[in-house]
Amino acid sequence: MGLPWQLLLLIISCLGYEAGVLKGAVGFACNWGTRSSHPLPPDIVVKLMKDNGFNKVKLFEADPGALQALGNSGLQVMLGVPNEFLAPLATSVRVAENWVSKNVSYFVSNFGTDIRYVAVGNEPFLNAYNGSFLQTTFPALQNIQAALIKAGLARQVKVTIPLNADVYETENGLPSGGNFRPDIRDLMVNIIKANCLPWEWDHLAPRALDFDS
C-alpha cells in the first residue's frame, strides 16, 4: 500500500507545482521539491516522471541525490538557487565559481545531468519579502553567469530569475498601461538588458536583423 500512496502524493505535488505542457512541445514539465518529511528515493522519482511523460523538471535547490539520479535520464533540468544563497553569491565571483563547480559542472561532466538553466532566487522580488533581496539578486545572477562562462558552460546553461506576477502593475487594467513596480523598475530594466538573445540571433542569422530600421 505504500507505493500507491507515494505515487499519488507525487502526482498531486506535480499538479500543485504548476505542471504543464509547453505549447508546441511534446511532454510535461514539473517542479520537484526535495524538502519533505517522507521523500521518495530520487531514482524512483525520476522513473515516475519518465513513465508519465515528463521531460523537464525544476529543482528548487541543488540536491545531490536528485541531480545524480537525473543523470543521463533524458530529462532537462532547471536548477534553483534558494534566496538565502543570494547574498554570498552576490558578494564574490569566487563563491559563484565554487557553486557552479560543485552543483553544475560536477553533475554535467560526471553524471551527464542535462542542466539547461540556473534559476537565481525563488521569486525574490515578491512584495512579501519587503525588499530583502533587491540588492543581491542581480549581482548574484551576474556572478553565476560569469562562473558559467569560465566553466565553459554558458552556451548550454542559461541564467534566469523566477518572478512573481506582482512585479507588474497597470494603472488602467489594460496591457498598454502596464509597467514594472516603481520600486523595481530600474532593476528590472537592467536585468532585461542582460539578455543575450539579440546577440545570438544576430550571430546565428546575421541577415535576419536590420539595426538601421
Automatic annotation (TrEMBL):
It holds the Pfam family Glyco_hydro_17. It comes from the Eukaryota. One of its GO terms (biological process) is carbohydrate metabolic process. One of its GO terms (molecular function) is glucan endo-1,3-beta-D-glucosidase activity. Its EC number is 3.2.1.39. Residues 1-16 form the signal peptide. This is glucan endo-1,3-beta-D-glucosidase. It comes from Momordica charantia. The gene is LOC111015592.
